[in-house]
Amino acid sequence: MGKPLKSVFKKEHRDDVSNPSTNPAFSSVAEIFLSRRRLLQLGAVAGAAAAFPLLIKPEQAFAAVATPSPLAKAVSLGFTSIAVSTEDSVRVPEGYLARPFYRWGDATGIQGNMPAFKLDASNTAEEQAVQAGMHHDGMAWFSLPQNQDNPTHGLLAMNHEYIDNGMLFPDGAANWNLEKARKGQNAMGVSVIEVKKGDSGWEVVRPSGYARRITVNTPMQLTGPARHQPLMKTAADPQGEQVLGTMQNCANGHTPWGTYLTCEENWSDIFVKKGEHNALEKRYGISDSDESYRWNEVDDRFNVDKTPNEPNRFGWVVEIDPYNPTSTPRKHTALGRFKHEGAAVTLAADGRAVVYMGDDQKFEYIYKFISENKYDPANRDANMRLLETGTLYVARFNDDGSGEWLPLIYGQNGLDAHKGFESQGDLLIKTRLAADAVGATKMDRPEWIAVDPHSSGSVYCTLTNNSDRGKEGKAAPDAANPRANNQYGHIMHWLEAGNDPAAQGFAWDILVLAGRAQSDDPRAKGTMKGAEFGSPDGLSFDHQGVLWIQTDVSSSTINKKAYEGMGNNQMVATIPGTNDYRRFLTGPRGCEITGIAFTPDNRTLFINIQHPGEGGDDITDPANPRAVSNWPDANPNGRPRASTVVITKADGGIIGS
Ligand code: FEO
Ligand code: CA
Ligand code: CA
Ligand code: CA
């Protein structure tokens, strides 16, 4: 092959920077959080609202609780924090049960097509297309029957974010060919599975009329302003309206009308261009081959020198109807094109849909979409079109604790031909460039966003880390990203004006700086009480207002370097305002904890274990797949497998209580 081994595999996450813009760095007041953090210590959102004098009048607070939780807000956590762990297992507090199901390679449950997993990874591409994909990530619950809150029977829709060519084949990437690329393509995308709680616990229903795999080759429709744009047209799709597939599906969202949102994150790693990169390709970090999956070698769609517009058809949010297995997924261009982490959906005071989204790369931005039309509980067909038209905004965090949502509208604020934008559709394909032009705030890798189910204007976002913050030639620390060389990350909170998600302004604060609870070094000091953690990524509220945080410490750093002694990746819980953090779960070796879904009664929790066994270089030697982990099978001839894990309380109680 002539390449060093490392170059033929996919690294876990691109660590580079694609944002050369010179957006204003606000004052470099690295310690400003210390005066702000107290606001979040005041207690519930009412306290926080009162403490934000800039925008929130007391009578406006709680104006909009558009999607009230069915469960009362919890006031305390009911479990004892567990210790850190380096064991090759999933650990949970006493009184809880955790069991893997739906592992990579398990049959999805499609009638008449349920091939068994082969321990040596010799399943074909065709078989992989009807089995669980690799590297499970974001996930959501949908009750059955539709429109009922059934806690014991439903659908799980989940992402399979990326692949590991060293683990996916008996011989890794040797003897590379189209069949191998197709197997990789079929190991990515989305699964929809039917799950049911029976006398012996939760099981995947097989076969199921709902079971579905969506892959890198599943046809999907483009919607919104970028549909039919010149930059979206290819030889295979001269109208620019139908795309094959979705990939690098990271986190997710789900809508009040019962659909799943899957988000395309590190898609730019897969497209390879050997020739000179234009400004758009540079801004989105199109690969020059070293980080490639090698699909470009056998499938021209991923060879940008040959199919220059194909990358423009990725980087979007895709809506899937899990209740209809023959429905065509839709890529909603109105929500912008970037490296989408997740898509947290809530409703504005007037019923418009609001979607919060992070762009996960160093120095990228936080976005918000507001639909033009309003949610109608009686008209699902109309709701299905809500994400097709609306306005995209990007966040600016001022260092006085205020913030603005800056609209990205063609023809406004200089977003016109002078800046290289031809139309609204063209602007959305170039979302990052438009956000640069209006002066958005460069963040420390925005990951998941979570909306408080008891107060829909109160929103949280994980900023996982950014080792380049403050480096020469890079953005300096600012109030919202206060630490140079931010190795541990932090969690941001903002409160929309009037507690309305559709507001144009907000007040913000930092919920917690992650890191070492015992450290005296302000760059390393974690501000939590209780369980310390770093690199927060997955973030979700449960139905009783407990905030769950899942960590993604890089495989090269787990329990090493700055993270020495912090153990495997983990999940911790807190109730915002208490500063009490408790460790609920620790994962097996080499994994990330991600994906989170609660049943409507909060008595079952599903999470995902992603990439168990991933080594320090983010690659697996095909000759030694069990070098780091052999979870969950522990079969001497097997290999580690990403898996959904179902968690219940032995006494049937509410999770976290
Ligand atoms: Fe796929 Fe940003 O994590
Ligand atoms: Ca993530
Ligand atoms: Ca991450
Ligand atoms: Ca990961």
TrEMBL record:
Signal peptide per UniProt: none
InterPro entries given in the database record: PhoX, TAT_signal
Positions of the UniProt region annotated as Disordered: 1-22
A Pfam family hit: PhoX
Domain of life where this protein originates: Bacteria
Record-linked PANTHER family: DUF839 DOMAIN-CONTAINING PROTEIN (PTHR35399:SF2), SLR8030 PROTEIN (PTHR35399)
Name of this protein: PhoX family phosphatase
